[in-house]
Amino acid sequence: MTVADVVMKDVVLPAEIRTAALEQATAHQKAAVQLEQARAETAALRTMANAAKLLDDHLTLARSRLVQAAGPGSRMVLQLSDGPAAEALSE
Questions:
Q1: Is-above-0.90 flag for pTM?
Q2: What is the rounded distance in angstroms from the CA atom of residue 74 to the CA atom of residue 85?
Q3: What's the angle, vertex CA 51, arms to CA 64 and CA 46, rounded to 5?
Q4: Confidence band (pLDDT; 50, 70, 90) for 90?
Q5: At what angle do helices 83-90 and 59-70 cross, to 10 degrees?
Q6: Are 88 and 59 in contact (CB under 8 A)?
Q7: Does an H or E element contain 4, and which?
Q8: Please, which of 17, 22, 39, 46 could form a disulfide with 13 given CB 3.0 to 4.6 Å?
């Protein structure tokens, strides 16, 4: 006589094992969330650094962005004729 097939049903794990498995799954999920948040923050910082470099390198772009950020109805005075800004414009 040989056994051809064995089927296990209704296996109940001890509470300690169930608790440990749940804690492991929760810790894994939290780690994945933290990793994704860190990646998103890194991407945002990289984007802001690139934008800052562009604004530093291109004065006209910086002024255009300033006007755009001020919005309609805002009053703004830009000094274009004296100081380092004027020198940068003449180059």
A1: no
A2: 22
A3: 165
A4: very low
A5: 120
A6: yes
A7: none
A8: 17
